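Quick one: structure for this chain?
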Amino acid sequence: MFMKRLLFFFFVLFGFGLQSQSLKEILDAPFATDLTVSNDGKTIAWVDNSAGERNIFVANGSSFESVKQLTKYQGDQGVALGNLQFTSDDKSIIFIRGNTKNRKGEAANPALLQENTEQVIYIQSLKEVDATQIAAGSRPSLSHNGFQLAFIKGGQVWLVDLTETEPEAKPLFKVRGSQSDIKWSPDDSQIAFTSSRGDHSYIGVYHIEKKKVHFLNPSLDRDFSAEWSLDGQSIAFIRRPNAKDVPPFTPQKTGHPWSIHVFDLEQHTSKKVWQAEQGMGSVFFGQFPGAALEWISKDELVFPWEKEGWMHLYALQTSTAKVTELIKGAGIVEDYSLSRDRQSLFVTTNIGDIHRRHIGRVDLSSHKMTMLTKGKGSEFNAEETANGLAFLRTTAQHTSRPAKLEKNKIDLIGNQARVFDKQKTPEVIEITATDGRVFNATVFYPNNYNKRKKYPATVFLHGGSRRQMLQTYHYSGYYSNAFALQQYFASQGYIAIMINYRSGIGYGTEFREAENYGITGASEVNDLIGAGLYLASRADVDPEKIALWGGSYGGYLTAHGLARRSDLFAVGVDIHGVHNWNTELPTFARWYHQSFYPEIAELAFKSSPEAYLDGWKSPVLLIHGDDDRNVPFSETVVLSEQLRDRGVYFEQLVFPDEVHGFLLHQNWVNALEATYEFINRHIGN
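Got it. Here's what it folds into:
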């Protein structure tokens, strides 16, 4: 009898511990980013964000068993850390610490630190304690010999000689426009760069010894993604025609075709070596990390193309214009890297497992892909090591962690992972929108789920809209946090779904460039309402207790749902949402002003939540940081006034000096705890 009581007491305590695991404890789990591999493949480095404390870690040893924390930054300071790059001798790491500036030139500072928080480039020895400051700037690019570092400051290219006793950064050259994407020539004698000029851009080359700049076949189009040939004699680049009067958040399935050009630096001649066909794939989509060119031999390039309605990779023989498809199947290639021997590509894809990410190897001789990872995790950011492959990995039970693949076996690196064994893998379901379109969602069920009970439900709406929620923790910190909150809702007795509405990625070009989405009709609202009707029709959902929440584009959809169907959605949380497209568009298209484009402006407003505010009855929590550079803070200020005018109950949570993707971890905790509390107060059991 005593033993039975003891066991009962143990199970009660253990179960209580699981139930009492706070949302903050889940959100505090370390999150890894910026994984990079040394030149010899024997050391890896990454950034860990542990409850807002960001530091660089390195691992080496035959199986990366030796892990150490390299930097010693302390506390949740709201200061970004990233852009890791090993020096040529692999003895040091170059990185950036600091925050970007807004249009007024103010560096983000949500922790209200009484110090400069602008971006600064540092170099950190793997053996020393303290990092050495190089210069204020961003986008550092180290020369191949490791002697010089070029970077961007104030839209111009600067240079610092690392061989000097006291290195001093100086402007390298000055030209009009905003410069970016620095690429050193193989012999380090020249630098290629992109010069953006608003409605057009050039590829420029600066000769360091001659101190001369010249532009490569300048045109009326947008040139970018410059890549030096292996011998340094040529530069390949992408040319995309300007699309007049086509604002962001507009579907573009087809358009004037983009092309690939190669400039011969000896002959000073430019040749268009390939052009996309009319129709599908004619518009270049550049929002994937892998949307870039890569030379794989003297005469062959790898490039991304959506000819078949999916972002796949192709090989182009520049001398003959012969094109070979390297990837086949339903799914996208989101990123890729080249092997050390230049014989293979390592790709991040969802082919074969559309709601996760896995790593595949493409043999550049046979043009065949072999999947290297599979299963219930997501793997991404792959880099070849001396003995295998390193990458970042998530599951439904842990956030982004460094991992390795050796002898066909995946192991996490280090012991910093916080694994939540009792968290569940969400199920994939299909939902029919109100206009008949079918889309996917993932659903978490409550602990001890009983199909005879009626549960409250939450719908999470991702931002972007070029995003996809997965069956694992996300590779983005923003959506990893959202995944955590939906897990938490389920643990507290909710049915929690995350919908992948039209215009998101992962399901092909047709789905992403959905007709009438965004500012051209908000057709994605049909998916949102369809999700609400689906939940209301389920026998295990209380139709009077359905909540919406989301950020950015997800806040926009939350506002749409509450304004259009307060009868369906009982409560919502709108985090830095868009409420009037005409206010938002100039943020991404400075040329746009509604008075100059009355037809676009009229449809954009009709596609905005503000057009439907008279139907808004449900309570809402509004959350916004007032240094948001993606969605103007005024969007929420104006909405609050309009809700007051209509007698709609709302609460507010404002973060001074915070940006769009919250830099201060405590702001994430406060925002998501407030989201849970507000929704639970209104519809919780």
